Amino acid sequence: MTDIDEIERDSSLARVEAFSDGVLAIIITIMVLELKSPVTEGLEAFWPLWPTFVAYVLSYAYVAIYWVNHHRLLGHARIVTGGLLWSNMLLLFALSLIPFSTAYLGERHFSREATLLYLATMLIPAFAYILLQARVAATGAKTVASRRYHKASHRKGLTAAAVYALGIPLTFLSPWLGIACAALVAVFWILPWSGLDRLFLDRHPPAESR
Fold it and tell me: Smallest Cα–Cα separation from 142: which of 8, 16, 6?
């Protein structure tokens, strides 16, 4: 029986990647359209806009991180299945909520309610990404490198979701504690593969078997 690693990469994966790239580009476009110029003249007119700009920078970082890691994840995929397509659509749906919560966060100047909504819209794509990764791991490459990648990323994703969840009760103490948790996750994922990932790998990885 042919091992899945020896199967030619499904050409339909290019369509999945192209569609996903287009949706993420639209999401960023919607977010940048929320950056309104001040109606009055002078540099001091920009100061009231700082919450909107900070919310935009944070959300832009998130979308960029998801794009980078989504690209890396699909590099381990080999075939397109219904489960992969629908889990990918779920992830894109979850990410499409970010422009709304970003605008609300900026307009409400990081209020408690706006921060709670923002953290909720961060949790949804986090779980959706875990689901997509599970589908790729089940039907994709089976090399030692792929297995190590999925194991480290899965553990890292669960840890990130836990940090988001921790931010919800902390927001009741101070919205900035919740935002700090969100920012911590952004730093957490800023690189698709970094020295931090070694914390989520087994100390002694198993030898590759054929």
Answer: 6
pTM: 0.84
155-165 burial, b at 16+ Cβ within 10 Å, e below that, comes to: ebbeebbebbe
Rounded to whole angstroms, the maximal C-alpha distance in the chain is: 71
pLDDT of residue 28: 94
d(CA 68, CA 202): 24
User: Residue 110, by phi and psi: left (phi above 0), alpha (psi -120 to 50) or beta?
Assistant: left
Task: Please tell me the predicted confidence (pLDDT) of residue 156.
Answer: 86
> CA 150 to CA 161: how far, in whole Å?
16
H-assigned helices in the chain: 12-33, 50-74, 82-96, 98-107, 112-139, 144-173, 175-188
pLDDT digits (tens, 9 = 90+) for 110-131: 999 999 999 999 999 999 999 9
Say if CB 99 and CB 52 are below 8 A apart. no
